[in-house]
Amino acid sequence: MSATAEIAVTRRPGNRSGAVKIALALLIAAPVFAVIVTLLASLARFEPTVWTHLLTYWLPEVLGNTALIMLGVGLGVTVLGTALAALVALTEFPGRRVFAVALLLPMAMPGYVLATVVIGQLDFAGPLATLLRAAGLSMPPIRSVAGLVLTLTLTLYPYVYLVARGAFASQGARTLEAARLMGFAPWQAFWRVLLPQARPWILGGALLALMETLADFGTASAFGVTTFTTAIYRAWFALFSIDVALQLALVMLVLVALLVMAERLSRRRARFVSAQGAQAPLSLGRWRWAATGLCGGVLLLGFGLPVLQLGHWALSAAVPIPQLLPLAGRSLALAAMAAGLTVTAAVLLAIVARTTPGRRLATLQTVATLGYALPGPLLALGLFVPYAGGIQWLNQQFGLAWMVHGGVSLLLLAYAVRFMAVAHTPLHAQLMRLSPSVDDAARLLGVGRLARLQTVYLPPLNLAMLTAALLVFVDVMKEMPITLMMRPFGWETLAVRVFEFTREGQWAAAGAPSLAIVAVGLLPVLLLTRVFNRKAADVT
Amino acid sequence: MRLFPRRTLCLTLLALAPTFVSAAEPPTLVVYSARAQQLIEPLFARYTAETGVEIKVLSDSEGALMQRLQAEGKASPADLLITVDAGNLWQAAERNLLQATDSTVLAEHIPAHLRDPDNRWFGLSVRARTLVYASDRVDADTLSTYEALGDDAWKGRLCLRTSQKVYNQSLVAMMMAQQGREATEATLRGWIDNLAATPFANDTQVMEAILAGQCDVGIVNTYYFGRLQSENPDLPLKLFFPNQGDGERGVHVNVSGAGITRHAPHPEAAQALLEWLSADEAQALFASVNQEYPANPDVPMDPQVAAWGDFRQDLINVSEAGRRQVDAVKLMDRVGYR
Fold first, then answer.
1. How do residues B288-302 score in pLDDT, each as one tens digit?
2. One-character DSSP codes across A97-116
3. What is the spatial distance between Cα A111 and Cα A123, in angstroms, rounded to a whole number?
4. Nearest-neighbour CA in chain A from B246: distance (Å)
5. Could you tell me if B116 and B89 are in contact, meaning their C-beta atoms sit under 8 angstroms apart?
6. CA–CA separation, A256 vs A66, rounded Å?
């Protein structure tokens, strides 16, 4: 077969291939549609008195707070995550190699745990405020929007840090060199060239942090701050109006969809191609110790102190370790399986979207990632209601007597829906760096579709897949509401145990299982580090 | 390194494996519980040892459990629903998630004001929500009623837990039941004016704030106080039981309780368990494991709990809290009690 004929054949993929791809993407997005349908069904039942009440007494304050928190956390994670990533990837300072890994650790710390520690340490009754009072000084109240923003920033910056570090590390040194050859000072080169190039990664990470912020309830309620999500809980649990709660969630989902699309739009025309290059770290001069101080400080606040506090609680409550082992085993198994499932689905979705022209798949891709912005209990309900309804329908149709049980597969599906955005972000970012000429070259060479997947797209995605799996794994370890509602009998996990102790305020007893969540969550961080280091060794 | 497809495929198969495992369950009792598992597990272990009946517990928050029961409908595996306050039990009954249990044993063991008038749920332990004060700074004679905490004398000296918690919603609902909406609103406004700090996320923080001198008095459930007291017997805090004067309604009590679910697969076995829970041995354990008061008045209380002193309970049926909970929440929102 001549080369021209081959091109003609492969350039026209045909309708069948397009339909298969769309069907695949639809299948992956299907559970999200199920949730959206559950949310939409609530519109049939309108409760004007509850709406009037919330509009009068809640929403003005809640909208203001939520905007402020989103702004604060958005800025906080972007600045902190980018700064730390740039320092670690581009400069040389004492402890850099250790910090490169250690700065990921706060990710393993659940937000609700950090919140309790921060409040315990920094509120009026805490040691610092007591010390200051003895010296005649007073502290601003920590249980405030500012305290909440600080805490969320400390737990969520790793999303930005992780992706930005990857971007800086792979293209930073070469780009900086080129910029400096053109007469830019290093600082200018960073601002004018490197930062704009890394923008899609940074924005992607920040968007994840914002989605998680929107869906957060545990941290906000610990700080006594009302947010859009606490209003949803108010409607559901205090005013007993699940329908208004679902309607509010729908409003939130629309806002998030707009946010996601705005972010996509902002980088639509941009193409970012990576340039490989050896590292030539910049010298920070006298400022190198300041860099060490910043990294150390963040690590101390976001990880060191909370771990100490948890350890103290764990010792004081003396929970026997063997009791925790089966819990840890189940947490580990669920997190690993969820990571595998979610990343597989996310890879397929990302590649299908890349290789199919047109807007439809881009929209499907956005829909599939929306689960991350929904408060956990509502997402769980959105999947559980159709599932339970389906079983009852089957019973009715076929005279069966099946009972509704949560199942591991249902639970994993729910995790996949919730954390699709988390897995998708690093994959999507990596695919964007793959030059379009790669696709053309593959076609020109006449590589078949499956072979193309294996030889062209997957090898460069290896690291991104690991990153995605790590993020999902750690998130599943910490996840509470979905695990609570969907778990089969006997599938108690570490997070379930923490929930049971903390809901009655028994923080000492919750210390050991919380610590175990952090410890098990660290396993993939260590694994990822080894792989990263091996990669680095391969390059040099 | 090639991760795909072998390893990923393995992971996926691993993920799907449980789908193919049959979910056949032996006929055992299933309990949905909003009461923390560590508080009911010792009890159920004893029941299993005595009767051979296995009990499986699924814990979650009340709201989620009710929603789950509703979604499961006739296909629900649950036999018993346990929650930690009357408001949620009332709500479960109102949404037709519970069935009536006609049992002379339960009627005999549980006082009328601590169970549903239609026998759809029964209180199993009593939780008193009372005042706590700094014993080194406050003279007990200056304390009298919940309402009096709204007086100017307590300006900047009061700490409260958030209105998100159902315990406070029930307290306010009971105030509304007896003194009406306007008087309750005046009391709440007084409380808010007197707050020394933003309402706290839990009762323990309220007591820690009093210990630190941020405020002098607060409202808590007694068992939270009991927990702090167990850690530190010389705690400079004391409980005060308000509204004890002639014609006053008594201390606000709530219940942790249970009801048999509407579509329970094993209603008789569930009733047997419920009756066992209302009798001597179980009652003592149910209450003492969390330093609560037994619902069954014939059962002696834990010595530490007894040492806090006697008090007269509010005898209005606790289901009133449920009936008025939404109104109470709306009123709390109106006065800006977050």
1. 999 999 999 999 999
2. HHHHHHTTGGGGS-HHHHHH
3. 17
4. 33
5. yes
6. 13
Q: Which residues of A touch B14 (CB under 8 A)?
A: 336-337, 340
Phi-psi region of B194 (alpha: psi -120 to 50; beta: other; left: phi over 0): alpha
> Which candidate, A386, A400, A477, places its Cα nearest to that of A31?
A386
Per residue in B229-242, pLDDT tens?
A: 999 999 999 999 99
Q: Using a CB–CB cutoff of 8 Å, tell me whether A46 touches chain B.
A: no
Instruction: Give the mean model confidence (pLDDT) for residues A115-129.
Output: 93
DSSP letters, A131-180, are HHHHTT-----SSSHHHHHHHHHHHHHHHHHHHHHHHHHHHHHHHHHHHH
Looking at the complex, report in whole angstroms how far the Cα of residue A386 sits from the nearest Cα belonging to chain B.
8
- In total, chain A counts a number of residues equal to 540
Helix, strand, or coil (residue A494)? helix
Q: What interface predicted TM-score (ipTM) does this complex get?
A: 0.90
Other C-beta atoms closer than 10 Å to the C-beta of B49 total 8
- Please name which of A456, A465, A475 lies closest in space to residue A428, comparing C-alpha atoms: A465
Contact A407 B23 (CB under 8 A): yes
Distance between CA atoms of residues B100 and B118, nearest Å? 7
From the DSSP assignment, how many helices (H) and strands (E) are in chain B?
13, 9
Taking residue A185's Cβ as centre, other Cβ atoms within 10 Å add up to 11
* Residue A348 touches chain B, beta carbons under 8 Å: no
Q: Is A240–B326 a contact, with Cβ atoms under 8 angstroms apart?
A: yes
Interface A:B, Cβ pairs < 8 A: 186
User: How far away is chain B from the Cα of A109, in angstroms, using its nearest Cα?
Assistant: 20
* Distance of alpha carbon B20 from alpha carbon B57, whole angstroms: 24
pLDDT tens figures, B210-232: 999 999 999 999 999 999 999 99
Query: In chain B, which among 99-128 make CB contacts under 8 A with chain A?
Result: none
Q: Which residues of B2-19 are buried (b: 16+ CB within 10 A; e: fewer)?
A: ebbeeebeebbeebeebe
Q: Write down how long chain B is.
A: 338
Residues whose CB falls within 8 Å of the CB of residue A505, separated by 6 or more in sequence, listed in order: B202, B203, B204, B224, B227
- Please tell me the distance from the alpha carbon of residue B326 to that of residue B328, in angstroms, as a whole number: 5
What residues in B contact A536, CB-CB < 8 Å?
none
Backbone angles phi, psi at A13, to 5 degrees: -65, -25
Secondary structure (3-state) at A83 = helix
Give buried/exposed letters for A84-108 (b at 16+ CB in 10 A, else e): bbbbbbbbebebbeebbbbbbbbbb
Q: Which of A384, A484, A500 is closest, CB to CB, to B38?
A: A500
Three-class SS state of A480: coil
Name the average pLDDT for chain A.
Answer: 87
> Do the Cβ atoms of A123 and B205 come within 8 Å?
yes
Contacts of A230 in chain B (CB under 8 A): 164
Nearest CB among B4, B330, B338 relative to A53 is that of B330
Q: Output the tens digit of pLDDT for each of chain B's 338 residues.
A: 444 455 555 555 455 544 444 444 446 999 999 999 889 999 999 999 999 999 999 999 999 999 999 999 999 999 999 999 999 999 999 999 999 999 999 999 999 999 999 999 999 999 999 999 999 999 999 999 999 999 999 999 999 999 999 999 999 999 999 999 999 999 999 999 999 999 999 999 999 999 999 999 999 999 999 999 999 999 999 999 999 999 999 999 999 999 999 999 999 999 999 999 999 999 999 999 999 999 999 999 999 999 999 999 999 999 999 999 999 999 999 999 99
CB distance A368 to A529 below 8 Å: no
CA distances from A284 to A274, A468, A479, B268, B318 (A): 25, 32, 40, 76, 68
**CB–CB contact A388 B333 (8 Å):** no
